[in-house]
Amino acid sequence: MSDFLIDEELLAAIDMGSNSFHLAIARVDHGEVKKVASMSEKVQLAAGLDENKNLTEAAQQRGLACLARFVGRLGSVQPNRLRIVATNALRQAKNGHEFIQKAAEILPKPIEIIAGREEARLIYLGVSHTMVNSGRRLVIDIGGGSTELIIGEEFEPIHTESIQMGCVAFTKSYFQEGEISQSRFDQAVVAARKEMAGMVNTYKAEGWDTVVGSSGTIKACRQIAVNMGWSNEQEHLTRIGLEKLKDKLLKCKHVSEIEFDGLKEDRRAVLPAGVAILYAIFDVLNLDALVYSDGALREGVMYDLLGRFQHEDIRDRSVHALIGRYNADLKQAERVVTTAQHLFDGVAHVLHLNNDDSDLLRRAAYLHEIGLAISHSGYHRHGAYLLQHSDIAGFSQIDQNHLSHLVAHHRRKLRSDAKSDVMKVGGSKLVYLCLLLRLAVLVNHSRSDEMLPAIELNVENAQQWQLKVSGDAKQWPLLIAELYDEQLQFKHWDIELNIQSEQFIH
């Protein structure tokens, strides 16, 4: 099947937000994502985080039940055309892996927990594809657990920030039991201002032409302002309109007293917190008005997925940006990439490796030496740390974890206990990819474009690998010796590596 999507094929995204879960299904029409179906449910995962940052069983069951209903709508969507992303609540949850394991029994694809700045990038992508105006934009998205603020032009974000404040989290902290008061509201506003303190000067210095809001809180505030006649002629949410909304809200003593035309019942409980956050944003950034956009995270996820099918994958751009940032040797990386791909192609079928595994190996091969920017000693560990903890556009936390393990194990000794760590993260496939990368790096130790021996890797079964080196072994004595040394490392991970050459057969 072609890698390219054709018009009328379906894409889908599930956005597992801290307040709501969303499903969007769309058709691709001349390069544009046209939504054809959507579902949304208030799951409030963030409200289910206990004092130890563990998801309660009740919250997990709400989430699983919602996902099961979403899956019922996905029958016509191929799994490779679906992405499932989770945001702040699962980033925070210490037992998030338990929920993900349970969800894996329901979902056709794994959940990707995305970092805050990756969430911001995808939100901007979703918004920018729904806006007709050009110029520089400030995009604001207030979620259940975090708020994303992005400055960008056209389809490219310039600054991305994810701030630890959201309507569900602030409701728990400042509007307990649904009580509303001036002092509670003021405390929430002060807390929001403090959270934004570190980015305000940078954002003001960068500047913007238009302000765009997305997602539920801003949608609700803007709709209330329109219904109450507090918006401007273009039906934008203005500073004056937000002030009127705040004043009317503070006349209520409890969320049960909130009455606004068009306000959904499940939005009422988190409205005071959402208004407080938005009020603080207007204040510290000196905003006069914002326009609402229907584009949000799930639309951004689908456009990002569409880019992957059309060979405009942000992940490859990020890989090459990292190579440049850490001044890695691109020629050497390309040598290792070529060898790794050759080895992969010879064993992929037997080891049940797919295109995603090939992409992962290729990116790890490009990045295996970035740790040299820190120190030559133990550079594989430095590189692994950078990949684990950097904000890398396009990659989920799981993606980065996989890359980190590949780079961490591409050289030096393999401990037996390290295999179990790799298995927990990526199963036997990740184990195989680690070993393929080791061989590719070893074969290119000379860092030279001079003729290397022809090598062929064959796998009789997952535990028995055979590497054939063609030509006179005396021409490459160091390489042959290192390959024989590598046999012991493979044994530590329960795989027998047999080396065949014209001079030696082991």
Write the layout of secondary structure elements.
Elements: E1 10-16, E2 20-29, E3 32-42, H1 57-71, E4 82-86, H2 88-92, H3 96-104, E5 112-113, H4 116-128, E6 136-142, E7 147-153, E8 156-163, H5 167-174, H6 182-196, H7 200-206, E9 210-214, H8 215-227, E10 237-238, H9 239-249, H10 265-268, H11 271-284, E11 289-293, H12 297-309, H13 314-325, H14 330-351, H15 355-367, H16 379-389, H17 397-408, H18 416-443, E12 455-461, E13 464-469, H19 477-492, E14 496-500
Parallel strand pairs: 1-4, 4-5, 6-9, 9-11, 13-14
Antiparallel strand pairs: 1-2, 2-3, 6-7, 7-8, 10-11, 12-13
Helix pairs in contact: 4-12, 5-11, 6-11, 8-9, 8-11, 9-11, 14-15, 14-18, 15-17, 15-18, 16-17, 17-18, 18-19
